[in-house]
Amino acid sequence: MNLKQLSHMLSLSQTTVSRALNGYPEVSEETRRRVMDAAKRHGYRPNPSARRLATGKSGMIGYVLPTGAAVDIDPHFVEFLSGLGDYARSHELDLVLSPADADDEETTYRRIVANRQVDAVYLSAPRPADRRLALVNTLGIPFIVHGRSEGLDFDYPYLDIDNEGAFHEAARLLTQLGHKRLALINGNDRETFAIHRERGMRRALAASGLTLGERQVCSVTMTEENGYRAARRLIEGDEAPTAILCSSLIMALGVVRAVRDLGLTIPGDLSLVAHDDVFPWLRPENFPVPLSTTRSSIRLAGARVAERLAARISGLEEGARGEVWPVDLVIRGSVAGAPV
Amino acid sequence: MNLKQLSHMLSLSQTTVSRALNGYPEVSEETRRRVMDAAKRHGYRPNPSARRLATGKSGMIGYVLPTGAAVDIDPHFVEFLSGLGDYARSHELDLVLSPADADDEETTYRRIVANRQVDAVYLSAPRPADRRLALVNTLGIPFIVHGRSEGLDFDYPYLDIDNEGAFHEAARLLTQLGHKRLALINGNDRETFAIHRERGMRRALAASGLTLGERQVCSVTMTEENGYRAARRLIEGDEAPTAILCSSLIMALGVVRAVRDLGLTIPGDLSLVAHDDVFPWLRPENFPVPLSTTRSSIRLAGARVAERLAARISGLEEGARGEVWPVDLVIRGSVAGAPV
DNA sequence: CGAGTGCTCCAAAGCGCTTTGGCTGATTTG
DNA sequence: CAAATCAGCCAAAGCGCTTTGGAGCACTCG
After folding, report:
1. Is strand C in 7 Å reach of the CB of A29?
2. Among residues A269, A283, A308, A330, which is most buried (max CB within 10 A)?
């Protein structure tokens, strides 16, 4: 069933039918109703390729997926996707994942924009002075960044959580509990979120006249194993920390294992706070000792990004609005006063 | 730069240019070279919407993503995606995720097929007599199933791992070690993979004259928490098992925690084997006691599915070929003889 | 009463590509 | 040597939709 057939059986022109369906004003309400009715009854659905060809719009949002033998997609991605999908579903938006060589995402961005495959894109895991943002910005396609960059000479729309504030609060709590030697097990410190977390932590320490030594900061890919290694290195080094901030629950698993292996206890010997993106399959309250966290649902962020993307596509949102969500600090059993 | 412009500057017809570019034979080699050259030099790229409209092909593969407030996307998905992306990237294939209400995926399948949005689709997590397969099969779009269904009156192409064999082997090992009371912590038993695993396990037990009681089998969503609960229920019940098979590493985390909470040890009091899909961020060898596993890389499966999908699209693969991959049984410290 | 004003609706021109059905001029073939 | 064949190219017809530029037809108003 296509437009031609439909309009023919209604004895109307394709123009009128098209307009009726797309809510244009120059068609009478009665006609519109008739058309809508017939369309529904015959299950008419406009062919998206044709529409795209005519309008240039696709009803899809894009994401360039860095891939490669050595590249692992972040497990956070799937939760973000859940949220995105939640919103997208109710608006008949599809998501196009364009796999790209992790070393050369630019070509892919150019391609999907040139091809008009998608109406908008979102970017994630931005770095300071991220070239992708500059590219996408000049390419002129609507976009939203999940996270923030830094040191760019233009503004852009983003959604981020207050990573700095979160780790500031967490560190402040620990210093208030008397901890003097803190350490940070962070994610990849080329990404802005990690930089912000470190910054927040340093600021809190500075307020108590403390500092964070170079050796008290680890920056690694967020795996259980890396959490374990980092924790061992920290604890077995001189100046062993009495409290650790950790950038992910998965790494926290490794920290907990390391602490156990070393015969220490949480929170007796070590206080631990980790960031929780709220996974359904791994929850901080179920850690051997319930884990204190800075919490922010990455899933909700996904839904919000989709919502804003949709708004930008339809012209409802414009400009470079940045949105920063506060992060909850949730205290559980894994923190205590500094050991004496 | 579009076809018209390009053909004009070459003083050729659009027909000829199009044919030259698409490798049709009715164009001389010299002309072809000239055209190819000019196309590359001017960075000509055919507009995919136009091409799609004309050919009906899109260069994209589709996946219907079940979503909903209560629906969590399986974290395995992201690893599968890594593999899929790896292959897709090198073949300029994009992946379209169409979010669907988890209770009504059919509408979405119909939509994406009717719309010709994608050239092929893949389905995952099939159930016995899965209606989606029947639907997709009659819809006539190329597809591949990751996993298998059962009880369907037609054949279909799939890629699966030997779940039954894997759990058969694992269970056999345990019985050989003298275990008499085994238990299974399985995934959702409405999905075929879970059924196969249980079947394999029962078969192995039967061979030793043992059986698996109803109460020795748990079927739950694969989260850490559910693993913990299931383990506690099993161990604290009467007829506590001396060995547990577990369908995922994430649940195994919970099992380990439960065992600890109860003051027991692995493998002294309980032997544990889990299925490992090979996540980069959680590895069985890094469990407190290195975990024995049945191992199969879900990432490789993703790549293979993409490869076969591409083959089907271009007509290189036909028919209902099923492919079943063997699963490695990897013995580590978490199994031992049955306690006396 | 004639011009102006809305309101509906339509024919036709794209959007950029592929593909069908020729049309040429050169080469073979009986 | 006329007829058949063939390689190489082209014009034009779609694919199914949106959108431009009117057209027709009441009505209103000075």
Report:
1. yes
2. A308
Interface touch B81/A60, C-beta < 8 Å: no
CA nearest to B225, candidates B200, B189, B261: B261
Q: Do B73 and A53 touch (CB under 8 A)?
A: no
Calculate the average pLDDT of chain B: 94
Q: Which domains does chain A have, with CATH numbers?
A: 3-55 (1.10.260.40), 60-161+299-325 (3.40.50.2300), 163-295 (3.40.50.2300)
- A207-230 confidence digits (pLDDT tens): 999 999 999 999 999 999 999 999
pLDDT at B113 > cutoff 90: no
**pTM of the entire predicted model:** 0.90
To the nearest whole percent, how much of chain B has pLDDT over 90? 80
B contacts of A260 (beta carbons < 8 Å): 288
* Contact: A73, B50; criterion CB under 8 Å: no
Burial class of residue A295 in the structure, from the number of CB atoms within 10 Å of its CB (0-12 exposed, 13-18 middle, 19+ buried)? middle
Mutate to test the interface with B, among A286, A298, A300, A307 (most CBs of B within 10 A): A286
Q: Which of A65, A13, A68 is nearest to A35 (CA)?
A: A13
A321: left (phi over 0), alpha (psi -120 to 50) or beta: beta
Residue B286 DSSP code: G
* SS3 assignment, position A128: coil
Strand partners, B282: B279
Are the C-beta atoms of B282 and A250 separated by less than 8 Å? yes
Q: At which residue do the structure tokens 């091409």 appear?
A: B51
Which chain B residue's Cα is nearest to A46?
A: B115
